[in-house]
Design goal:
It is a single chain. The protein is an alpha+beta fold and 87 residues long. 16% of the residues lie in helices and 25% in strands. It contains one helix and four strands; from the N terminus they run ββαββ. A four-stranded antiparallel sheet has the order 1-2-3-4. Strand 3 and strand 4 form a beta hairpin. The protein binds zinc ion. The site of zinc ion (ZN) has 9 residues, from loops.
Length: 87
């Protein structure tokens, strides 16, 4: 399991396998999330959301290997949603 798709396209680090909370809209697929706090995508997210929407939130890069879909996973803190990390 070392396909390029397992790495975050924004920071190049290996993404974490992540299971969504049971009550979320993300479903039951195991997804890959970049939980790197130094990821430029995540860092830019704070600035963008603050400037555009005056909100203290950001997002992490998310990739669903089951569907091939990727997009943002909104987070409200550095520790948010980490409890779903599988490995
Ligand atoms: Zn990243």
């Amino acid at each position: 399991m070392h396909e390029p798709s397992e790495k975050c396209p924004h920071c190049g680090l290996k993404m974490s396998k992540w299971a969504a909370p049971a009550d979320s809209k993300w479903g039951t697929d195991v997804q890959l999330i970049c939980f790197n706090d130094d990821c430029p995508y995540y860092i830019r997210g704070w600035e963008w959301m603050k400037t555009k929407f005056n909100q203290n939130v950001s997002y992490r890069h998310r990739y669903n290997p089951s569907t091939g879909e990727n997009g943002p996973l909104p987070v409200w803190s550095s520790s948010a949603l980490r409890e779903g990390i599988i490995e």
